[in-house]
Specification:
Layout lengths: L21 H7 L3 E2 L3 E6 L6 E3 L2 E3 L17 H16 L4 H19 L1 E2 L4 E13 L2 E12 L2 E15 L3 H7 L5 E6 L8 H21 L5 E7 L2 E6 L2 H15 L2 E12 L2 E11 L8 E4 L2 E8 L3 E6 L7 E4 H4 L3 E4 L5 E9 L2 E5 L6 E5 L11 E7 L2 E4 L2
Parallel strand pairs: 2-8, 9-13
Antiparallel strand pairs: 1-5, 3-4, 6-7, 7-8, 9-11, 10-11, 12-13, 14-15, 14-18, 15-16, 16-17, 19-20, 19-22, 20-21, 22-23
């Protein structure tokens, strides 16, 4: 068999490629191609980079090659580069930032490489030289296997850095949201400043957890209204999760409505509102039940668990229908200390903190008085009650 170009006879030790010997074939056909100029599109806010398949997250897992010879796959290299750039953004070490950018540049170049059919990339080495703040010269040395032989090919290209905000950061800056979580008190009992502060702190913690799991999930903004809070959440699923967390903590009821906010790219844009309304009776409240003081252990819109205070007694669950008979006496901050004047089995004399008069009170079974100089009390309609 002879090469149609140079006439060289090719025997058992050689192979014809399209009628050409390997030397003639390589003169006409580069095994590896790279564009003269490669654009590296990177988000200046988070370090995510734009690839052929769309935007890549600023951090991602590395993986093995997919028919690319030794080393990581192109996608994995690009993911690793993005992660390195994002990490270096908060690093004052110039060497670390330079290495991160080098990885981003080489990843962008590798994304554009075109390998001829029938060849396999064995190794790839880069030499990156930065011309200015947004321009790089990249030299490549590739080892390529073809027809049972290993061929070295040298290439070069220019990389231009082009900043562009990724969709996630664009939504963040535009305060984009798909769900609103409305936190409110009961109709008959408004949320206190302490309730609102606790709800805000709980939402901040849950928002950070959601964001760690998904870059797209975040709280876009928080509005404080009279007696309530509105949390604007970026995704439907994150909004539903935040509503569940708030409802679980405060024993609240959730009512959900969905509205059509418009259309984009042929799809309906839905916006969901979750109303998280606190119950009228809340954990930690002191209430009268059957004429005796109890403390609310837990509460939902359906029932409440009560425990007698102080002393010993049976806890009981009060259904929704029976909750109307509960009388709110106070909350923990309403409890004041009363001085113990004297005590005897089953009775105690206290000094009323308001009138400074001596009051005789019956002590419940199991209540311990030994060594106590004061007792926590609540007062309702002139009646003094031992709370702790």
């Amino acid at each position: 068999m002879f090469c149609v170009e140079c006439g060289r006879e090719v025997g058992d030790e050689g192979t014809l490629v399209g009628g050409l010997c390997l030397e003639c074939f390589l003169e006409r056909n580069p095994l590896l191609k790279v564009p003269e100029v490669v654009d590296l599109v990177r988000c200046p806010h988070c370090g995510a980079m734009k690839a052929k398949g769309g935007w890549r997250e600023p951090a991602g897992p590395s993986g093995g090659p997919k028919g690319r010879g030794r080393g990581r796959s192109r996608g994995a290299r690009r993911d690793a580069a993005a992660g390195a750039v994002a990490a270096a953004a908060a690093d004052d070490d110039g060497a670390a930032e330079a290495e991160a950018m080098r990885l981003a540049v080489t990843g962008a170049v590798e994304e554009t490489l075109e390998l001829i059919e029938g060849a396999a990339l064995q190794s790839l080495a880069f030499n990156v030289v930065q011309e200015d703040r947004r321009s790089f010269v990249v030299g490549l040395k590739a080892e390529i296997a073809i027809c049972g032989e290993s061929v070295t090919q040298d290439l070069d290209t220019h990389v231009r850095l082009r900043p562009e905000s990724c969709p996630v950061c664009s939504r963040r800056m535009g305060s984009y949201y798909e769900a609103i979580v409305q936190f409110r008190g009961a109709k008959s009992r408004a949320a206190t400043e302490a309730d609102l502060a606790e709800a805000r702190g709980l939402a901040e913690g849950e928002g950070a957890r959601l964001e760690a799991a998904s870059r797209e999930a975040h709280i876009s903004k928080v509005e404080e209204l009279k007696g309530g809070l509105d949390f604007y959440v970026s995704t439907q699923s994150a909004g539903a999760q935040l509503a569940r967390v708030l409802a679980s903590r405060f024993g609240a009821a959730i009512s959900t409505t969905t509205t059509l906010a418009g259309r984009k790219e042929g799809r309906d844009l839905l916006r969901t509102t979750h109303l998280v309304r606190m119950p009228d009776i809340r954990p930690g409240d002191y209430v009268l039940f059957d004429g005796e003081l109890h403390r609310v252990q837990s509460s939902t819109d359906k029932d409440a668990l009560l425990a007698p205070v102080p002393g010993e007694g049976r806890r009981r669950t009060v259904s929704r229908s029976d909750r109307e008979g509960l009388v709110l006496v106070g909350v923990e901050s309403d409890v004041v200390e009363a001085v113990v004047v004297s005590s005897s089995p089953g009775e105690v004399q206290l000094l009323d903190p308001q009138t400074m008069r001596t009051v005789d009170l019956r002590t419940p079974p199991g209540f311990k008085l030994e060594g106590r100089e004061t007792l926590g009390v609540l007062k309702r309609e002139g009646r003094l009650m031992i709370a702790r």
